[in-house]
Amino acid sequence: MNQLCTRDDLSAAVNSIREHCQLRPRIACILGSGLSALAERVEADAVIPYSEIPYFPSLSVAGHAGRLVLGHIKGIPIAFLQGRAHYYEGYEFSDITWPIRVLRLLGVDTLLLTNAAGGIHRGWDTGDIVLITDHINIPGLAGNNPLRGPNDDSFGPRFPAMSAAYDTELINLARESANRLNISLREGVYAMVGGPNFETPAEIRLLRAVGADVVGMSTVPEVLVGRHSGMRILGLSYISNIAVDSSSKLSHVASHAEVLNTGAMVLPRLAVLIEEIIQHI
Ligand code: HPA
Predict the structure, then answer these.
(1) Catalytic residue selected from 191, 241, 275, 276
(2) Is the pTM for the entire model greater than 0.85?
(3) Catalytic annotation on 280?
């Protein structure tokens, strides 16, 4: 879809948001599976269903509310996206990342991305919060990339670097924030897979062998499009389930219900961490 959309289409989306609300946030936070309630901590100026914003993808997955919340946290203007579209819902990567370009045109330069992920790193546990320091883009390595197709030079270069995709200053800020709050923070590499199935034990062993610490079905396309247009990125996962790496552990079968239950458990901790980070950006 996005490939066929023009600057006019993007402007239509931006204008429709501005008609609801004149707020000019520089920070946006995308709330992953089970985390939509985090936006309840915002003093909201406007809550806009995605269905009212031209070309925003509609969402079909439980735990993703599908609303743009514009408001303030501790006096700081911010946009929260309650939920995201996924490739496995049938969208192209360029559709999924349409909202990132809209946010860029709204003036957002800092993206906080959150998600639920399966834990691969041995010893890490359900409910742990993981600061993403790098990623492995499994669909992208095979050429499936939101930046595929004609490049819009007004957003960024044809060949954007991803050597520091996750902003070093924001990583430090997240570490310091977690320290101050006494919240323990893991750090590691996020592997993106297409889904919707959870991985086989052999796939998990493969991902571990190539250096992945957590695995999920989102976030990376947003990082690519955000970085392409010069946005600074911070990524936070919470481990919603431990990825099964051996058929002898099959008594534990991953499910979306487990993802959402863990999300509810992690939410208060993640909320205070994100608030602390936002105040220091
Ligand atoms: N695998 C892939 N994506 C996920 C998982 C998982 O185990 N948990 C949450 N998102």
Answers:
(1) 241
(2) yes
(3) no
